[in-house]
Amino acid sequence: MIVWRMWSVFCIFVFSGLEDEGFEMLEELAYLYLANNKLTSAPKVLPPSLISADFAANQLTKIYPYTFGYKPKLRSVYLHNNKLTEAGLPDHMFNGSNSLEILTLSSNFLRVVPNNLPPSLYRLHLKSNKLEKIPAGAFDTLSNLRELYLQNNLLSNEGMDNDTFSQLSSLECLDLSNNNLSVVPGGLPRNLVLLHLEKNAIRSIPGDALTAVRNLEYLLLHNNKLRARSIHPASFMGLKKLHTVHMYNNLLERVPRGLPRRAKTLMLLHNQISELGRNDLALLYTLTELNLSYNKLTSPKVHRDAFRKLRDLEKLDLSGNGLHSLPLGLPRSLQVLEIKNNQLNSIPDGALTGMEKLQKIILSDNQLKLNSVYQGAWMELSALTTLDLSGNQLTHIPSDLPESLEYLHLQSNRISAIPESAFEGTPNIKGIFLRFNRLSVDAVDESSFAHLSNLQVLDIGSGNKRDDLEGDEDEEET
Asked: What is the pLDDT of residues 342-359, one digit of tens each?
């Protein structure tokens, strides 16, 4: 082992002057590390004892038949971040190396998937090349392949066919993100668990493209050009294991029909959804997280029964829409509710009733005043630990804060005084944030904090110079 360590250092620094025969003499060489050098050509011959070779981050343009060929113990080869083209790779690059499991050829200049890849591979990295086409049968012998990374290439639907991936019977992870696909490809293998299709130009999902992929759990389709009407209603039929679907940053004008009924996480943020009908979410019984932030939802277009079936929902994000009123009929199972950056000026009577599991509510950057919230609303939230009302129009600290509260965000409001009784009902509070209000030194009763033994952060800070602020006339009274 000591001899090998000495040879590895020697190879790193003086390889440019070392004859290929020097490696043949190392009959027990198992691990060769020559990454991060300036090699332009790989050694013509490496010993058959080799187990792993790392030539990453060089300037390689040429590999030879006996560089990696006829190495029965070879398990991993790292060739990423080089200058390899298909012309620099021999046709039978891994002949006689039937134990190779990991091959990385990422960040080169390959335009076509290499021929005659060893059937023993279980992980293949080809990302960040210039791949435009996958030849017919290129993957047909790779029955052991579990992970295939093809992201950041130039692949289009025309550069592959419905049999391109069909023989990859062990494939679990396929990454085709950041290519030029316009349609979800067909012929995907049944055992696929994770499918990356984000950052393409996908406009449609055919009815039969995914239905055979019965083990699919994660489907990532964000940053595409999908519209709801271009997603076939049967697209997700039979996908009983599919629990995470990302469709954010598309062109969806409504919640697509036929979404997987056992989905747990559904990301629909940054679309153009303008309406939530009574039955748009009715079949998604198992959802635990739903993100509809930064769409075009308005209060009149959100049906009061839209969430009625989501009895397991734990996290709901409706931020960045045009809501004027907190929606009624929100699931009582919620633990986190975010409706920041809307136009909320009302929390109607009973809107928070029964939410005994709610731990965090974010209502920052709205138009709420003290009289916008029905009396006792916060007190009903017996599990609440974080209340964020920053960036609203409050003139006083709410008087009905729950005993469970730990963090209270009231910065950027119009609060002008902190009375002695302000925090009598919140003995567990750890953080109070009051920057950028209208507080003066004599308006803060220090005794109001005296009994708060758990208080760790009291941020009154800058922005509380009442004399410099205007417009007290429109403040409502307690």
From this structure: 999 999 999 999 999 999
